Amino acid sequence: MSNLKICNRCVLNENYPGVKISDSQKCSCCTDMFGDTYKNYRAAFKNYQEFKKGIKNFTGKHYALLMLSGGKDSTYLLNELVNKYGINVLGFSVKHPFESEVALNNINSLIQKIPFEHIHLSLNTKVYKKIMQKVFSLKRDDIFSERLPCTVCGYITEIAGVTMAYMHKIPYVVYANDPLQILNTDYNIKKDLENMIKICGKADVYSLFGKDIIDEIIRAEEDELPTIVTPYVAMMDSYNENEIIEKLKAENLYRGDSVQTYCSLVPLLNYYSFSKYNSY
Prior knowledge:
280 residues, alpha/beta, 5 strands, globular
């Protein structure tokens, strides 16, 4: 263990799949990530500026579909979009087998306190669990292996939200990713759908979402699909986690904390990361 190479910036070790530690003790993630970070920030900033410009001239029913998890960030963003900017938002949540009870209670409370429409989509639990079991059992040795279960779950939520927005002709899908999650969003639904099909197989993707809508998304041009917007990433200099929590608590819009609103798979995910990759 004493000879194990560890990155002196992020403390990843050389056992992490796909990671190489240089002689200067920097891992390949730290040295390679800046290009992707800048690319994602530019995409986030561009999309957010377009989102703001289009509000006044929009004549449809819902201007944005907001991915609502019941956590502090999406709760605060919902309140801002609806009560501060007067945007007609469709709140969207995915009812999956591992949903936090605290997060669910927060969502139900918001429905009573904020004037917005909400869809809580129920996916096929059997297929959902089958996909996650497959993902946990996959043997891969690349940089995405350790986070694969979370990545696939993110794909499921993203595809569900984008397909819902597409069917309702909603131009924007809004995510409440905080600035530290800048690399968690690709801003390219077709690429993420393609990745999910490669990992899980087209049959299971069809079973979860429906063949017709998936094939329609695959055939669609990029400009025919909703645009993904991440306001907190675009405004990273003004993001203040403590201020968000303080304001939400003052208005009685949020209960619990970030840990309590995580999905119930977090303990298993930590064990998976530690036992397979000596990471957590």
